Amino acid sequence: MHEMSIVESILGILREEMVKYDGQKLKKVTIKNGQLAGAVSESLKFAWDALIPGGEFDGAELEIIEVPVKVACGECGEVFSPEHARCMPCPKCEALLGHHVLEGKELLIDSIEVDDQQE
Ligand SMILES: [Zn+2]
Questions:
Q1: Chain centroid to CA 77: how far?
Q2: Near ion ligand 1, which residues have CB within 5 Å?
Q3: Over the chain, what is the mean pLDDT?
């Protein structure tokens, strides 16, 4: 599963990041999943739930923010959010191709929360 390796690479980034939070526990991770990023949020959650228990981030929660696609028309520059990620006619000039994707391609860690109460 594609999402499994995405979550694994997110965990790799978190491991590096958590070095800064010496001994603290990761509570929650928020990621942004762009509509064009090619990852299914449900599958990301599933992969997270499969990889997290028993590990160093046991109990950490995953929140996924789905980022809709936003493009700028290649013909007239109109910025719009297409209804479908595959077919995106410009609402102004009806151009179908050559749009510049502004948002929706990203898959990244937006923020993390750590538990600063040492038990
Ligand atoms: Zn246009």
A1: 26
A2: 73, 75-76, 78, 90, 92-93, 95
A3: 93
